[in-house]
Amino acid sequence: MIDGEVTPRGPITPLGAGPGWAASSSRPTPSTLIESVSMVRGPHEVRLHRVTAPSGTVVRQTGWALPEAAGEELTGALLPLHGFTRSSVMESPEGTVFGPDALVPCLEGECAGPESVFVCVATLSAAPAPPPPVYDPVGATVTWHDGTVQELPL
């Protein structure tokens, strides 16, 4: 976001993929580069973004849009693991294929320097989900609920 306005994501360039992960980059503005990696395990998706942008640039991450009527049949969450400082829920003006009234979880944080890292976990499940993974910023690793540790490939 620049001056309170959401910027377009820009063209996405693939950076690589492997078992359970994929990475890409995008350049929403000439002065902003976003390198992203998503790691998936069960109902959890860890999303890491390394953002090169001027200090104060706001970074917004949204989660899965769920219809308000989803109830207990489908649950979702968006949890900050690193860098995000605010959370909210937005209404989706277009709804989803599941219904017209959808809610979208949202996280925001601000770039603190020329390069900032933001990490969250998005969960979508039709059954009770296991505990969310833990992110270690020192080793850039994720520890999943079963104790498996994976290094983020970015």
Give your account of this protein's structure.
The protein has 154 residues and is mainly beta. The chain contains no helices and 13 strands. A hairpin with a 5-residue loop joins β12 and β13 (149-151). The two termini are 23 Å apart. The model has no long low-confidence stretch (mean pLDDT 88).
Task: Label this structure with key terms.
single chain, 154 residues, 6-stranded antiparallel sheet, 4-stranded antiparallel sheet, globular
Q: Percent range for helical residues?
A: under 10%
Morphology: globular
User: Which consecutive residue ranges, at least 5 long each, have pLDDT under 50?
Assistant: none
Oligomer: single chain
**Intertermini distance:** 23 Å
> Strand sequence of the main sheet, in spatial order?
1-2-3-4-10-7
Largest sheet: 6 strands, antiparallel
* Cα-atom radius of gyration: 16 Å
- Per DSSP, the total helix count is 0
Strand tally, please?
Answer: 13
Average pLDDT figure:
88
What's the helix-strand series? EEEEEEEEEEEEE
* Beta-strand content bin: over 45%
**What class do helices, strands and sheet pairing give?**
mainly beta
